[in-house]
Amino acid sequence: MFHSLASKKSNHQISKPQIWGTRDRHELSRLIGVGLLAALFVWTGMASAQTPPTQGPGEPLALQPLAGQNLSATNLSANTDIRPILFQMMQRSQAQVVGGLAVETSLIRPLYVATRALPDRPLFVIRNTLGLYQLTNEGNLVLAALQSAPLRGLQTEDYWNARLADIQKLATTGEMPAQEALEMELSLAQGLVRLASHAAHGRVDPKLVDDETDLTRRPFREYEILAAGLSRGQLQATLDELEPKHLAYRRLRDLLKSLRETPAERFRPIDARETLRPGVTHRVVPQIRQRLADLGYGGANPSDLTSAVYDPALVAIVQDFQTRHKLEPDGVIGPRAFAALNTTLAQRIQQVRVNMERWRWMPTQLANRHVFVNTAHQELAAVEGDREVLRMKTVIGRVLRRTPTLVDRFTDIRLNPYWSAPASIAAKDLVPKFATNLRGAQEIGIRVFDLRGQEVDPTRINWRQFSIQHLPFYFRQDPGPHNSLGQVKFNLTNSRAIYLHDTPHREDFPKSVRQFSSGCIRLEDPLRFALYLLRDQPEWTAERIQDFWSRPLESPDFKIDLREQVSVYIGFFTVEVPTEGGLTRVKFAPDSYGQDGRILQLMQPLNVNAGGQSEF
Predict the structure, then answer these.
(1) How far is residue 439's CA from residue 486's CA, in Å, rounded to a whole number?
(2) DSSP secondary-structure letter at 467?
(3) Contact between 567 and 493 (Cβ < 8 Å)
(4) CB count, 10 Å around CB of 317?
(5) 44 burial type by CB count under 10 A (0-12 exposed, 13-18 middle, 19+ buried)
(6) Which terminus of the chain, N or C, has less C-beta within 10 A?
């Protein structure tokens, strides 16, 4: 537009005075008006881009129809030029209704600013020689991107509906009237921004899934990247670039593709009500063999799939399956094992989608050296680059005291730590213990202090009168073999008193389900983990640490500041695709915290029509 303005101006330049006619004055006025409108659009667009809307893409719209304005987006004649209407709409911050579409112009205006499209032209539709409209190349790119949303674990229904599909039919023949063209233009713009935002930062607010998490859904700001992808004709590649770059996310996306290409008949239910033990002969054993082979268990060339005998070779394969599905690896095929075997293809696809969503909440870049605690699989891994250097079992929070999703860092290590009981644990666990078994509480080193820090004699207190609302004491456990934190504590920075530690309850680690804590994370091999965090502090050897542990009361709560405060990511991921073995060695965990179901509920399709009442 600015180029045409300059060229028209040069045509009117003369070397000597000249009397201008009416037509010349009208043309000059028109050009000045267009220039002023362009400047206004760029100014308001830049302001919008610099101050992002409080609503994120896909959130509820405060709808206000355009009726009563000078330029109306309703009841347009078929051949109307939609540019002035579209341009005017982009100046308004409130949500509007156009035809059957709810439009949040503040979300899409930065896209038009980044592409420098208006006021010259719409982005996604173009007027043809008949005065009607058809899709531009950019419009076709966006349409293809919206329709391929399921490949990203998202759903086209969030960005498209049946009415828009009908309008598309008109667009393909170049017979799209102005009213429908305006609706199509805005639908593609809004759908693209929503899709890009969901692919980059998530479809669901993580705080609606875990109210204790510090993670939030980040606002979409990558309009310039999106605009560049459109101009290059490489929109799909640009959306790929906006998605999380974490290797775990990419593996999940590969798994989703593999599952979507898998025939559903491979997941037909195995009908059996009996518990199968090693050595039995049963009619469903061939079906079990086939199911496990289809899922990648038993190697590339599994043995005879027709045998009805539950033989030792099949027992070993079943135990591998049980381990990777967080089941007791006893080789007994009971209700839980059959439930895992009979998980449908659709259920697995949904589970993968949910875990892809979780990765979109994580920081864009994980620290090169970091610790990752997967609370669904109850395991910890130390990672450097894309290489896992350490893995161990953990015990995590029980369902009613779940371990939250956190991004944090280790600050220091405490040898022979004191345990100061949080108020909630003190009221729920320790007060009843003092009321019923005072001697037992004293034998494990728990001492009572008043709020001034003075130790009190617990035998002189009527413990039955206190509750969580009224508890004028705090409780501290001395270092030693009974200490709830064991011999070492690994401190983090969060305000929820969540940290990692040793435990005297070593009997919990061989169990397949390890949800016994009050939220903190217990480690299977705390000495090994301590040496990993202290590897840049060679003065701290295993022998020196163990010497401290042998004298708990001589060196209580000894603090070691970490020179490198290693990052830690704690999250509930029910699907893991390991580095080795790939898609044939996928690990699935049950939804013990109920979070998969909650995410799926929140991922129900938006109503993209006007007046939609979707939560997002």
Answers:
(1) 21
(2) B
(3) no
(4) 20
(5) middle
(6) N
| pLDDT tens string 74-115 | 678 999 999 999 998 988 888 888 877 888 888 999 999 999
Residues 6+ apart with CB under 8 A from 192: 111, 142, 145, 146, 159, 226
Strands 567-571, 369-374: pairing kind = parallel
SS3 state of residue 447: strand
Closest residue by Cα to residue 145 from 203, 193, 217, 202:
193
The residue type of 216 is: T
Instruction: Give the percent of the chain with pLDDT over 90.
Output: 64
pLDDT, residue 43, reads 45
Nearest alpha carbon to residue 91 among 42, 31, 51: 42
User: Both tokens of residue 583?
Assistant: 């898609």
pLDDT band at 579; cut points 50, 70, 90: confident
Strand partners for 278: none
CATH 1.10.101.10 residue spans of the chain: 270-343
Rounded Cα distance between 423 and 420, Å, is 9
Token duo for residue 586: 């996928």
SS3 at position 333? strand
Encoding tokens for residue 310? Answer: 């539950």
User: What pLDDT digit, counting tens, does each position of 156-185 carry?
Assistant: 999 988 888 889 888 888 899 999 999 999
The SS3 of residue 493 is coil
Question: Locate tokens 């022998």: which residue?
Answer: 543
How far apart are alpha carbons 140 and 397 in whole angstroms? 49
* Superfamily of domain 270-343, CATH level 4: PGBD-like superfamily/PGBD (1.10.101.10)
Segment 58-73 shows an average pLDDT of: 42
Task: Cite the DSSP H helix spans in 503-574.
Answer: 526-533, 542-549
Note the pTM of the prediction, 2 decimals: 0.84
Which residue spans of the chain are classified as CATH 2.40.440.10? 368-583
Q: Both tokens of residue 149? A: 């949303």
DSSP string, 383-394: EETTEEEEEEEE
Work out whether strand 101-103 and strand 473-477 pair parallel, antiparallel, or are unpaired: unpaired
Residue with tokens 């220039």: 35
Q: What CATH number is given for 368-583 in this structure?
A: 2.40.440.10
Say how many C-beta atoms besides its own lie within 10 A of residue 184's C-beta: 26
- Strand 500-501 versus strand 567-571 pairing type: unpaired
8-state DSSP, 176: B
Calculate the alpha carbon distances from 452 to 68, 109, 477 in Å: 68, 59, 17
Distance separating alpha carbons of residues 276 and 332, to the nearest angstrom: 6
Rounded CA-CA distance 163/145 in Å is 18
Least confident of 130-144, 334-348, 456-470, 584-598: 456-470
